[in-house]
Amino acid sequence: MMVTLAGAMSSAELGLSLAEMIRNDKIHAISCTGANLEEDVFNLVAHEDYVRIPNWRELTPDQEMELLSKHLNRVTDTCIPEEQAIRRIEGHILKKWEAATKAGEAYFPHQYFYQILLDGSLEKSYQIDPKNSWLLAAAQKNLPMVVPGWEDSTLGNIFAGHLMRETINKNCLRIGPEYMVELAKWYMKTENQQGIGFFQIGGGIAGDFPICVVPMLEQDMERSTPKWSYFCQISDSTTSYGSYSGAVPNEKITWGKLDKSSKRFIIESDASIVAPLVFAYILGW
Length: 285
Prior knowledge:
Blueprint: E1 2-5, H1 15-23, E2 29-32, H2 34-46, E3 51-52, H3 61-69, E4 72-75, E5 78-81, H4 82-103, H5 109-118, H6 134-141, E6 145-146, H7 154-165, H8 177-190, E7 197-201, H9 205-211, H10 213-220, E8 228-234, H11 249-253, E9 258-267, H12 271-283
Parallel strand pairs: 1-2, 1-7, 2-6, 7-8, 8-9
Antiparallel strand pairs: 3-5, 4-5
Helix pairs in contact: 1-6, 1-12, 2-4, 4-5, 5-6, 8-10
């Protein structure tokens, strides 16, 4: 099963259940946004410094500006502290970017995170039980992963800043189409087992990018390729031209992503509530 993570599921602490799913081999690949990639690690090293805003729906623009002045970046009711979270991780990952630049090596964004998680350098900064970090669990499994549009993330912006300062070289990073190639290799290696399911949490590029690997292989590579065996999406988006990836599963049949026999489901609700319930059911909690 491939799981795709959109929204701010890491800051919603999905790692409490997702990490256990990974350790129990219930998940075999992940596609996630750059935000979800980094925010799981931010939570790992700065959880006690987060600021909760219970009345976040009632904040005035002036109150939002006050949070900015304190370097608190709000995600719904949770404020991520810049210094304790973002800058702390920047310091560690910058060393990896610089080392790769010097050595003439290149890695994917998630591989740099795997490196800083596995080398032990963050352990003294842990503020939650590390078993609740889904990215740490993924790193320990060396789980296949794609992170489309990573440059849209905070650390993606920071990477661009270092490129402009010429402290690193762009060639140390693998992104975009190279992720699709690696995903295609994984799909071809895995497809003849029991079929590959697709579990999409939220909308957007995290799901839109990886689901296209099937028609890419079939139409562009002219290779007979089995479709995704099932598709399930948790989303409260309504179907329209302007909604956020609210297309119903049947529409994916016309694009060669699903077969008419592929099982198809939509759970119309908030993923931060539903995904942990689904995972708890699978794990027998």
